[in-house]
Structure formats: C-alpha cells, structure tokens
Amino acid sequence: MTPASPSHPAAGPLADLWSGEFAPRQPLALVVLPKVGFALAHHLPAGPPPLPPSHPTSTPVTLVVSAPEPAEAAELVAEIERRCAPRWVWWSASAAVPPATQVRLAACWDLAAVHRLLHGGRRDDPAAVWAAAAGLPLPPPPSRPPGPAARVAPGQLGLWEGTGDDPAARHRLDPTGAEGISAGGGVDTRGTREPVGAGGPLGAGGAFSAGGGFGLGGADGPLAGDGQLDAGWLHRAAGPGEALRRAAALAALALQAQHRQQAALNGLADRRARPGRTSLAVLTARAESAAELLARELERDGLPIDRATAETLLAEIVGPPPRTDADELAARRRRDAPVLAHLRGPVDLRNPAAVRAALRAVGIDVPDTRSGRLEPLRDAHPAVAALLAWRRTERIATTYGHRWLDTHVAPDGRLRGAWHGSDGAAGRMTAQAGLHNLPADLRAAVVAEPGRVFVRADLGQIEPRVLAVVSADPALAAATQADDMYAPVAAQLGRDRPQAKIAMLAAMYGQTTGSAGEALRRMRRAYPTALAYLDAADAAGRSGRDLRTYGGRLVRLAPTPRPPRGLTDPAPPDEASPAAGGVTEQARGRFARNAVIQGPAAELFKAWAVTVRAELPALGGEIVLCLHDELLLHVPIAHAEAAADLLRRALAATAAYWSTASGVRFVADVSILHRWSDAAH
C-alpha cells in the first residue's frame, strides 16, 4: 500500500492523526459501517484527565470517513495503522474486523473481551458492556430489529443485533451484507472532523457542534434517560451521513467504556511476586483483546489440509463417500458388523442402555459404557475391543466424514471454522468445524503447503507449572526447573513418575478416591502451599463465592442450574438431578479448583500466542492453529529455524512479566514438521 497523498479525499482530517498529534499506542476508537465508511474517536495529546471511573472523560475528537468500497476502507485503516500505531478500541473485533480483510492491526482493546474478563459470564453485547462499565443494571438481552432488513448495513451495526448468551451467535450475522443504507445519496461526510460532548446523564457537554451531530444522552443520543445504551439507536439513522455521525458518537462512547474498564482493572490486586508498572490485569486485557484479533485471522486463513490425503484416509476408515441413503445405511451396517459379531442378537450400538445390556449378556457388567470405563476391560472380551474401535470409526464417519470435508475445506485447501478468543469460565480459545477436536487418524492430512513447513510448539506440563506460580509454592517452583517436572515431583513423593502425575492431576481436578488417594496425601505433605491454594478455591466453589484468576478473570461460582463451562470444559463428574436443585456443592468445588488453574493457563497461553503473532509477519508466517497449549505456525522453509527461535523467545518474554520473581520455569517442545501427524502427541 502506498502512503496517503495530499490529494486523497481523506488526507486532510486524517493528516491530523499522523502529523504528530497522535501518540503511538494511544487509544483510537473505531466503528465500522460496511459499504458506508467508518468513524474514529480519540483524545487530544494530553489525553483524558486522571479522573475517577464515575466521572466522564475529556471530550474526544471524532472523524467520520465515507468509504463505500471495502478495499478503500481497508486501505485507510491500514494507513492509520502504519503511520500512527494506535491501540484500536472497538466494541467487538468480530464486528470491527471483517473476516476477509487482509489489514493487519497490531494492538487493540476489545471491549467485549475485557468485559468478559472483568465480569465473567458469556453475555458481551454492547448494551451489557456499557451497563457494566457505567455501573448500571444489566439490561434485557438485545434482539434483532424488526422487519426484513435493517436500515443500515450490518457488521459493526450488527453489534446491536445482539448475541444474548450464545457466543457463537455473532458468527451467524452477515458482517459484509449490503442491505439497508447504501453508500449513495445522503450527506457526504467523507473526512469530517468533529468533537463529541459527553452529554446526557454522564455529565455536561455539547454534542457535535459541526454539522448537527449528536450528544451521548438525551433524545438524539445513544444513551436513554436511565443511562442505558439504546440498542436500536444506530438502526434508526435516516441515511449514510447520519449513520456515520451516529457511529462517531458510539466511537466516543467506546472510549469512555475503555477508560472505565481500565480503571476497574487497575483496581484489581496484582498477585505477581514483583508487580510491574502496568498491572497484570491490564496486560491480560491487552492479550485477551489481541487474541480476538488472532481469532479473526485464524478464521480467515484456515488450517492447510491436503484434500487428496484426507479423502484417502476417510476411505480407509469409513469407506467411499455415500451417494444415496441406501449407501449410507449399508456403510453403517458395515461399521456395526464387527461388534455385533461378538454380541447376542441385534443391538442398537447408538443406544448406551442397549449396549450396556448386551455387554452384561456376555459377562461384562459395567455401570456405564464410557470409553474410559471400557478401556481397562479391552482384553476381557472381544466385544469390548471391537466396540472401542467402532466408536472411533463411528465418530469419524458421523462428525468428520466426507460431508465434513465438503462443507468445511475450501477449494484453496484450507479448513475454516469460527473461532472465539475466550469461551466459558476457563477463558480458553475455542473453534468450530472440528478444528479443536480433529481425530489423530486425520492429522496426517494436515500438510504444509509447497515451500513451507509447520513449526509446532507444545507447552510442557503447563498446568502444574501454572499451579506453582499462582500458589507461590517454593517447593513446587523448584520442581519446574526440570524439563520434565514430574521427575522431581516423583522423587519428592517417593513414587514413580506415573504415580506422581496421577497425584498432580488428582490435586488439580479434585479426585480423592482410588489410586489417587494415597498419592494425594503425599502431595499435601510435599507441597502444602499449593494444596492449600487449591483447597481454598474448592471451598469457595462449594459456598458459591466468585473467584478471580491470577490474571483477573472473574469466575462465577454462585449456584446455577448447570455449571458455567465452555465448549471444551469437561462436565463436572457428579451433577445432581434437576429435582435436587442442579449442581452439587462437590461439583462446584471441583469446578472452582480446576478453573483457578485452567484459567491462568489459558491466559498465559494467549499472552504467548499474541506475542508470537506480533513478530511472525516479519518471517512471512502465520499462526494456523491454537490448541489449548499448542501453537502451530505455517512458515517459509527458509525461516523455519527463526520461527522456532521466536516461539522460545516469546515464551521467555511472556513468562518474564507474567510470572516475574516466581522462580517458575516454563518450557516448550518445539519441532519443525511437514505434517502435523509427524509430531509426538
């Protein structure tokens, strides 16, 4: 892209940004109206005064730019990024960053992501974000505007269409649709620069003075009389000019929300052994925000799949693609036959009760038919081994079969699905289309493209190492100096390595019976500080007291009909029946015990991932998969070693501020691969 020239229609007002008036990493709010333009808001160089969160910030300056062509809007945003290096502020990256855009933005503040960090839960629509930032009651969930089409284009406007409690809902909205206001007609607001007053219930101040703009409150602003965000205000714009002016008011409001969120984060305790100048909660908010940008890039770029290899693997596992319903029924019978050959009479293998009864008839009496229950009995009867093999094949056939390949793998050979930066109480990144659960049998189809390789990094024993940091247990911190920390733990417990691992997992997951019992008792004697930390979380969960993770994420633990878990979080093992009131105290305790480890582990992982993301473009690479504690990079062969070094350096830099003065060492197993299956999983 070439720098904007003085002849560019937007060069005049935008020149104020890159003339020295705008400082690097200064907050710059962005509201995008696809096929219309965008609005910006920022404070003058002096910035907002150091006021308490309840007080409005100083009056921001706004810019509105008419850019009906997506490429033009992207070029302008990229130019602002290159010249100003701002910290972009938006209500949600999923709406502000269209999936197809190739613009690369370095730093941001995602109000929805930070809201989830501060307040927990899943609802993160702008009305809920603003209410929390302003100290107002949670408003009713937003709904889609009536009628076949909104009056303005969706995308950033789609924020007001609402996501309720379903984080995937935002991906079902068309972020680039053209219905509603067109770019033609109306007021030409290309490159207009106007101030926006605080207005309304938040304090005195003017509206835009130029061109009949809007204040933030009152009949012509986005805030209702009670201070709540009017979810339909943006949709009621009469034309593109008014829509852009309203977008500017919403950008100004976003700056207020960001200021209040940062003040709230600064008020949280920094639990590091040696806190730095910037609080860990603020650093976590920045990483969580950048993770949402990474999620958009993962959606756009996809995971390389060799389709021919995938088709061959599927044919070997489940047979050829079915052409008719009869073909599908025949394939199903072929999959069932090896199991039914060892059972008496016809059995519906997809009915757990029927399978349990059939196993009992051949002498295998089990309380349930979960794979974990059956695996130790694999050699007890041939039906068990056949059933376990059937489950693997059945899962691939029904979830990852030929239809999955046709649906989710594009002609360019990339597997794409929706990504979310933090889902559920643990805050893990999650993905759809099978990206987070791809069976090992199909990983051989994940092949680097010609001239490129994968560079994979897997954090070693991340959860025990995180436990050492968050609990400040000196004995456990000493164990992390080893590449394999289970070896010194085993020596401390007087047990072999497998038993030491069982003891550690039992401590974090709350298992107290069976083979874990004695090992856990030894853990209490060897690492009392770590176990006391976990016990305290367990007690909080049982009593329904909310907790915060090491990085500041609120974990809601008040009794609910079901536990607050994400798409990848395991269900608590002992949910009570609905008649008994939902989840037991024991289940809530176990959930809390695990969340205070999984949550910080997810926060550390994302901080590491976005640090890698920041430097990877210089190597011509991209992150193509984030899998719990594993990063998969796709880079030119010539830069493979440099990418491997980047992964290690980024981990060291992240750990240096995240776990400063803790004495805990983090390690990563880094390898260069042609196929994902070449890695030791």
TrEMBL record:
**SMART domains membership:** POLAc
The enzyme's main class, written as a single word, is: transferase
Keyword Transferase present in the record's keywords: the answer is: yes
Q: Give the organism, scientific name.
A: Frankia torreyi
Q: Where is this region: Disordered?
A: 552-584
Q: Which Gene3D superfamilies match?
A: 3.30.70.370, 5' to 3' exonuclease, C-terminal subdomain (1.10.150.20)
What protein am I looking at? Answer: DNA-directed DNA polymerase
Coiled-coil stretches = none
Instruction: Cite the entry's keywords alphabetically.
Output: DNA replication, Nucleotidyltransferase, Transferase
* Gene Ontology MF: a single term: DNA-directed DNA polymerase activity
Entry keyword Transferase: yes
Q: Which domain of life is it from?
A: Bacteria
From start to end residue, where is composition biased (Pro residues)? Answer: 560-575
